[in-house]
Specification:
alpha+beta, three-stranded mixed beta sheet, elongated, binds iron/sulfur cluster, Leucine-rich Repeat Variant, 375 residues, 12% strand, four-stranded antiparallel beta sheet, 41% helix
Length: 375
């Protein structure tokens, strides 16, 4: 006869999860402590909903379920082939690998709901359980580590020895007693490559990320202007950033995912000029089931301006001038001014000077004045 734990694992695999592990439902004291330290150092400043209360709750299953006994953590490998057609000489912006797939929040949640149903049937019990997929309410990575799915990399992502850090995680807190797995004994050792290679120095020390400096945060969660000093460091990333994962030697040896659960939604790059001319309707249709919808059209256009300013694509000057004149969003107009200032041809300077005559928004005016050469 199969044990409960065997059923838990087999059912998870049959639904399509590559990884499954079990943790007890005790508080994650070390992770709560680390998260609170990051909070006190203002590293989470730009994520207002991630307050102290929420961080403590995220590591405390008893605050999330009436009588929690175990946390089942699952993972899906999402590593895909790199697009060979990508060329930095084109007017392209890069998309992080996770965002090239369907929105994992939706997919993993659906899978976990099905999993919970099947588990109830198979174990012939009613399960009280709650599902979490990276919505900030549960420290999934901490429970994944405790459940033996991998170790915390110094870049703060979970690393699994088979799938590297290319994994979507989800968790089910349940009221069923299960024998937990042991955490793995591996760690990053002396490697510090991700810390060294991060272009914005966002990994301020091992296992400590200043979200306000991270390109992922800046291009996705940040709703306002991108800090002036960080823009030149962002390269051509327009949604997320994979540099610290790409550079990680553990990820070097990882095979492409054989998991067919996820549908690919975009390539690893998008045409930047196309983004500047994209309508709201087009954006909503194209990214309806993609994580990219999170940044909203104006966020994506803001990011496209920064990428164009960094790659200095002269072919994009007319589109940037149009954006400065006609875009409805002052955020986007302001960043297009910055991009024109970075490309810095006479045509750019002329367009910036003319825009001073009709622009009224104080933020955009400030950006234009900064982009013009000091007299
Ligand atoms: S995602 Fe990019 S910016 Fe963020 S820590 Fe990693 S390398 Fe740095
Ligand atoms: S690059 Fe090195 S330090 Fe960073 S997560 Fe990978 S193994 Fe760890």
């Amino acid at each position: 006869m199969k044990t409960r734990e065997q059923i838990v694992v087999e059912l998870a695999k049959s639904i399509g999860f590559d990884l499954v592990g079990i943790s007890d439902a005790n508080e994650l004291n070390d992770h709560i402590k680390n998260s609170l330290a990051a909070y006190e150092l203002n590293y989470l400043e730009g994520i207002p909903w991630l307050n102290k209360e929420r961080l403590i709750k995220g590591g405390s299953p008893d605050q999330l379920l009436h009588s929690p006994k175990s946390v089942i953590v699952v993972g899906v490998n999402y590593k895909k082939h790199k697009d060979d057609s990508y060329s930095t000489s084109d007017s392209n912006g890069r998309i992080a690998m996770y965002a090239q797939w369907e929105d994992y929040h939706l997919v993993i949640k659906k899978m976990l709901n099905e999993y919970k149903e099947n588990l109830q049937k198979e174990l012939s019990i009613k399960i009280d359980g709650r599902i979490f997929v990276d919505d900030g309410s549960l420290l999934e990575k901490g429970f994944a580590e405790k459940a033996g799915l991998g170790w915390f990399g110094k870049h703060t992502n979970l690393i699994n020895s088979v799938y590297g850090s290319w994994i979507f995680l989800g968790a089910l807190i349940t009221d069923i007693e299960l024998v937990p797995n042991e955490p793995v004994k591996k760690n990053c050792g002396k490697c510090e490559l991700c810390i060294i290679e991060c272009p914005t120095n966002a990994i301020v020390s091992p296992y400590q990320l200043d979200a306000n400096k991270c390109i992922s945060f800046l291009t996705i969660e940040n709703r306002g202007a991108i800090p002036y000093d960080l823009r030149p460091l962002m390269g051509d990333w327009i949604f997320g950033c994979d540099i610290c994962q790409d550079i990680c030697p553990v990820n070097d040896k990882i095979d492409i995912s054989q998991n067919t659960t996820f549908i690919e939604k975009t390539t690893s790059y998008l045409d930047l000029v196309g983004i500047l001319y994209m309508s709201q309707e087009e954006f909503s249709t194209r990214f309806s089931k993609s994580p990219i919808k999170r940044t909203k059209l104006r966020g994506l256009q803001r990011n496209a301006c920064v990428a164009l300013g960094n790659t200095k694509q002269k072919e994009a000057i007319p589109a940037l001038i149009d954006t400065l004149k006609n875009n409805q969003s002052e955020l986007v107009r302001g960043h297009s001014a910055w991009a024109l200032g970075e490309i810095d041809t006479p045509e750019c300077q002329n367009a910036l000077k003319i825009s001073l005559e009709y622009e009224n928004d104080p933020f955009v005016l400030d950006e234009i004045n900064r982009a013009l050469p000091v007299k």
